[in-house]
Write a structure and sequence with these properties.
It is a single chain. The protein contains 13 helices and four strands. It is mainly α and 377 residues long. The protein has a domain of 76 residues: Tetratricopeptide repeat domain (Serine Threonine Protein Phosphatase 5, Tetratricopeptide repeat, Alpha Horseshoe), CATH 1.25.40.10. A two-stranded antiparallel ribbon has the order 1-4. The longest helix is centred in the C-terminal third of the chain and has 36 residues. The radius of gyration is 33 Å and the shape is elongated.
Amino acid sequence: MSGTWQWWVLVGVVSLVGCRTTGTAVREDGKLPRQELQFDPVEVTADLELEKLNDEELFAGGTSAFAAGDFKQAARYFGRLVDFYPQSSHRKEALYNAGLSHQRLKAWEEAYHRFSELADAAKGQGDALEAAFRVAETQYHLERFSEAAELLATLAHRKDIPAGRRMEARVQQGICELEGGRTELAETTLRTALSEYEALSDKDEVEDYFPAQAHFFIGEVYRLHYESVKLEPSKGTDKLAEDLNYKAELLLSSQGHYLRSIRVGNGYWATASGAQIGAMYENLYEHMVHTPAPPELDAVEAQVYRQELRKKIRVLLTKSINIYERTLEAAERIGSQNAFVDRTRESLRKVRELLLADADAEQDAAPPPEPESEPHS
């Protein structure tokens, strides 16, 4: 039986008790006597504890376990019902709940198999429609990004489901494409989702979560472009300046989309966007402070280069601090608490320390004041 069913399978041990013959003498025709092999009987039982329960009892037990947060037990009860009572009136609901139980346990493969049996991305309604979205989610966690994106594209093109579900499918499709490395396609899909959202006469049909998420992930597209630009002083000052300017432009493009996400007003993605903006300024600081001066500069020119770089670095650190502080203020105002908030708080502490260390370094590097000259007699 498949391990994905989360059953305990008890199999009786097969043992050979020996060979018994029907006779010991050689038959008159010279042929060897026929031998009959006998084995102990084998009994296979799916789950002794649940074996005697009917479908009503299994459904009630699964529902009770799920409500109590015992998802492992719920998966057992619902799974038993699905596999042994195919004609039960509870089967479809049990199938969905079995998938949901496995999903809560992060048993993505098992969840995928349960949801897949029920899902209908092209025409399904009710649980069949919900299961299609769940299938895409399990595929995402299983890193089957292409399959998930294809299924979500089918959902996004349906005109018989609410605008909010189409928006959800389109945004999730773009995210799967981005995770699968298809960056340009992902940006196109996410921009299409936002265009469809802006075209709605009643935007209340769509939760603010999804347009905010779309803006956030377009910001992620440009952040990935930003990270791909490397600063290499060995290529000379002109190339270094060109790459630095391009990197700064990508940072600003990414920041622009994060800010749009913040303006949508969804607490989760506003916090996430603020955290990413601050992290990008912090990242640019790390690049600049650890990039050596171009080799063609002499000692005096290199010192001037580092002085100018220090000014730029101070600006980056100050911007990062401001954004982190505003992000935390917004999170406190709306009562948001998530991993992005924790990361922002830690990053703020780190950047403040960097700014203080930079100020101390500048003070240490400053030339000592010249002594006042004595008046001539």
